[in-house]
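job 3f2a | input accepted
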Amino acid sequence: MGRLLRFGFLLVIAVLAVIWVWRNRHQVATAWTKVSFWPIAGALLTGGIAAWSGVPAWRDLLIGLGSRLRLRDAQRVYLMGQLGKYIPGGVWTVLAQATMAKELRVPRARSGTASLMSILLAVATAAALGAASLAVAGRAVLGSYGALLLLVVPMLALLHPGVLVQVGALAGRLTRRTVALERIPARTLLGAAGWLALGQLFNGVSFYLLVGSISADYSNPLLAIGLFSFASAAGILVVIAPAGAGAREAILAFGLSAVTQPGSAVLIVLLSRVVLTAVDVLLAAAAARIGRSRRSIVAAG
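job 3f2a | predicted structure (301 res):
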């Protein structure tokens, strides 16, 4: 039944996306003529920095739990494991990272805890950055509903080690996965949150470059950053969809429709998904290659 629901959800999203693009196909075609190389290259670069920033965050959490990995090994485990988010279900990233970390003598429960904590912190930091940015520059999108941003405030409690452990335990029960959550030092937790917030900021800049290129309006970076951060938080929470597909795009399209043409909004959202997917694949491939090179050197020695 779970597989059927996930397949049905993805099918509905795909059908709605096709209908949406078809209805706005002429505007999409017009917007496509504005696409140029350098904004795409900039979006790839900033998206790559954003994706990599999860590595030191996950590594710091792992250290706080009692296991230390070299940065090279942490890159391989984290970046390759991130491809698991493209599988519906919401737990595959955690399982993949735990499996690979075990080869490096890190207990599954410990690496799984670090992965789950990084996901929860990513939701909190993305929502906080999104709310702060939209509060300043999102009047055109929020209208008279700006007070709803206050709903993000309770999520900041996840930055407290005790609260994070309790929420993580609840998530483990909901996903029917046994993860022995442990309390880690507040300083370590805040350091990891800082890395993740930096990553969300660079993701927002990546989205801003695409928005500015296609809409020819670079005047409101905070709006783009806020929209993408808020949409990212929602996408993480919708675990039934791979990499937040559908939820993230819906929020971005809704927000952009207030400031740009529907066709441009469609193209921006689609390009952002393509760019960040390419970033994830390229970084995972690079991490895997580095790992193979290391094993070859050890074997030769």
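job 3f2a | The CA atoms of residues 42 and 206 lie 7 Å apart.
job 3f2a | closed
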